[in-house]
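TA notes, week 10

Several of you asked for a full example with nothing omitted. So below is the full record: structure tokens for the whole chain, then the designed sequence directly under it. When grading your own attempts, check the secondary structure regions first.
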């Protein structure tokens, strides 16, 4: 296996962490008799030669030895090595280096040169190896007819369910990579989607057909898919019941029964959903079938799948959201927790589930607050979801929490979503803000949410407490500027209702790193352009971190900021797209020069979707004057995909709330125009 390994000048090669001199040890570790050593070696190989998706220089030198390892019947865990080879070769295809003989091209060429080994492994005794091999055959064996013959043969002979699923996936990959040979592969997938194959394999085949040959899907796809899902679940439940002696009930078996976890089922339906793309009527119907099924595991999987759907696509989601709310009454903790987790991220879109959330909050006071690390606390998910949805039934519960011994750090932030109806909470918020010591280590976590809530409620009676906090902040306090900015934004929200003693404090802050925010607040409180214009113009010229804030503040001054136009026009040429957008918006609002600003905003709208809310807010203020860009707003309202969907990474990325705010702003801007 390792013939010639010591003849390679490993020290002259590079991997992700520098010299590749350690790779011979990792390669030998893959052949170790110790499972822990093999696992560590495989992790090390991924980190070194295939780090974060990049294929490094040393990868091509490793490929011959990796191929020798998988060809040896004496090596355990060969499936992991096959998967490493597939990953290296596949990533090299996705990250082309222009065919100039770079690391990726060389590594892939090495895998292709040794692809005959995968033919020999197609019928290996180890099912995990057989499961890893089909993708390697499709990607690296440059004989499409032979590959298709091998896949057909394995589909006929294979009895292992997971290997059959891998074969189905590889048939779909074959269709994409070899469209001129697609017809027989599509026919194989069509056969797999029909009886007498088991429900799981049929579901998998339907998902792959949706990806590569949607015209071969049955007309009643949703009915068929939901029926297969329920049949599969019934078989899985029967298998669980038959597992072990019926007269014994160990803790492990009880835990397995209670755990609503079915990764394979989740992946099968996730694949089908993603392949259906913008066929939202079918996806909604499919989700409804999943969420109304008898199996809690299927419903739990559906809840998590729904999160992706809501985050990526626009639509009327009231039906599915209501069904997710119905899961809150389930006995299974994981199902209920999954539903809460998804509803928390929907904000106003969670309104159809508000009754179920209110019922859960009312019946489970133990879920109002949850402990966090180092003695901190946060609102429990059900209460947070109810408040974020804007439902006023959360207000009396939040009042009870505010009256308790410990106030969760995020309580103030959720109050912001309840609007003026939460004004009754203002006295308690003021009292809690008064208890925050300006020099305390956790002031950011404690004070900023409270300041945000008081600002959202426009509670001018909080001015003394806000000023106390501002005056008492030590100069070296961690995150001091962030606390100052939150306090100043609260004072700005109070506007002219704030007493005159606010003005001297804001003027003092014009000499600090928070000058732009202070100037904006001072303008809101006092309305004196001469006091803030020089400061904001200087902020534009002095430093990039504050240019966007300065431009935004100048835009609020309108024509009175004419003295800053020259600097704003220079900022429109910034390398930073957000600075260009902020400056262009300000120029348009100050001078009315849409001819200069509109092209900058139009380009940014397309190139960086995250700028769209800023641009739309500007157009709403401009009213009819913003008409040159109204076509962008109309196109946005007609689009089905959320504007930040392509930049989301996993759950917890850009939420649907950002997009819903954009849509509301587009409607308002067009209405104003």
């Amino acid at each position: 296996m390792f013939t010639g390994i010591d003849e390679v000048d490993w020290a002259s090669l590079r991997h992700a962490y520098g010299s590749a001199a350690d790779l011979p040890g990792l390669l030998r570790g893959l052949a170790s008799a110790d499972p822990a050593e093999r696992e560590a070696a495989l992790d090390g190989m991924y980190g070194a030669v295939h780090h974060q998706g990049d294929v490094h220089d040393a990868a091509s030198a490793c490929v011959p030895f990796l191929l020798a390892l998988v060809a040896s019947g004496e090596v355990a865990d060969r499936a992991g090595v096959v998967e490493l080879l597939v990953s290296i070769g596949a990533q090299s295809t996705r990250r082309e280096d222009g065919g100039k003989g770079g690391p990726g091209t060389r590594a892939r060429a090495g895998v292709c040169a040794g692809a005959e080994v995968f033919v020999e492994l197609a019928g290996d005794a180890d099912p995990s190896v057989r499961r890893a091999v089909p993708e390697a055959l499709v990607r690296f064996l440059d004989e499409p007819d032979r590959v298709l013959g091998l896949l057909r043969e394995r589909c006929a002979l294979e009895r292992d369910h997971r290997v059959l699923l891998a074969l189905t996936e590889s048939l779909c990959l074959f269709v994409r990579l070899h469209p001129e040979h697609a017809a027989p592969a599509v026919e194989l997938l069509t056969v797999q989607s029909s009886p007498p194959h088991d429900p799981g394999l049929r579901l998998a085949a339907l998902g792959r057909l949706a990806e590569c040959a949607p015209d071969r899907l049955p007309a009643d796809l949703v009915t068929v898919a939901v029926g297969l899902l329920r049949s599969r679940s019934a078989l899985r439940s029967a298998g669980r019941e038959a597992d072990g002696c019926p007269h014994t009930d160990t803790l492990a078996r009880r835990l397995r029964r209670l755990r609503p976890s079915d990764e394979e089922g989740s992946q099968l339906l996730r694949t089908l959903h993603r392949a259906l793309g913008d066929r939202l009527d079918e996806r909604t119907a499919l989700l409804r079938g999943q969420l109304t099924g008898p199996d809690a595991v299927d419903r739990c999987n559906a809840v998590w799948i729904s999160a992706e759907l809501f985050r990526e696509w626009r639509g009327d989601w009231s039906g599915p959201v209501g069904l997710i709310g119905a899961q809150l009454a389930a006995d299974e903790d994981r199902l209920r927790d999954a539903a809460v987790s998804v509803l928390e991220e929907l904000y106003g879109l969670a309104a159809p589930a508000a009754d179920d959330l209110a019922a859960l909050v009312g019946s489970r006071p133990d879920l109002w607050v949850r402990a966090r690390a180092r003695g901190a606390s946060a609102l429990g998910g059900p209460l947070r979801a109810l408040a974020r949805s804007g439902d006023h039934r959360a207000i009396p519960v939040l009042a009870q929490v505010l009256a308790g011994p410990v106030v969760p750090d995020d309580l103030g932030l959720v109050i912001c979503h309840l609007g003026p109806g939460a004004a009754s909470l203002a006295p308690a918020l003021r009292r809690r803000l008064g208890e925050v010591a300006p020099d305390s280590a956790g002031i950011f976590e404690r004070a900023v949410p409270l300041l945000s809530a008081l600002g959202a409620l426009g509670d001018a009676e909080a001015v003394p407490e806000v000023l106390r906090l501002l005056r008492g902040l030590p100069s070296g306090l961690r995150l001091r500027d962030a606390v100052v900015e939150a306090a100043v934004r609260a004072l700005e929200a109070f506007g002219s209702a704030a007493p005159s003693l606010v003005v001297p404090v804001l003027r003092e802050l014009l000499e600090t790193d928070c000058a732009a925010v202070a100037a904006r607040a001072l303008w809101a409180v006092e309305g004196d352009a001469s006091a803030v214009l020089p400061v904001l113009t200087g902020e534009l010229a002095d430093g990039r971190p504050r240019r966007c804030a300065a431009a935004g503040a100048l835009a609020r001054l309108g024509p009175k900021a004419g003295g800053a136009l020259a600097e704003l026009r220079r900022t429109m040429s910034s390398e930073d797209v957000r600075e260009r957008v902020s400056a262009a918006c300000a120029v348009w609002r100050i001078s009315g020069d849409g001819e200069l600003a509109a092209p900058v905003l139009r380009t940014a709208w397309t190139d960086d979707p995250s700028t769209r809310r800023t641009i739309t807010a500007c157009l709403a203020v401009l009213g009819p004057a913003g008409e040159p860009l109204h076509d962008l707003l109309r196109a946005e309202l007609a689009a089905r995909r959320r504007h930040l969907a392509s930049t989301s990474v996993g759950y917890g990325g850009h939420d649907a709330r950002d997009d819903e705010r954009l849509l509301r702003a587009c409607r308002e801007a067009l209405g104003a125009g």
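The chain is about 65% helix and 0% strand. Use that as a sanity check on your answer.
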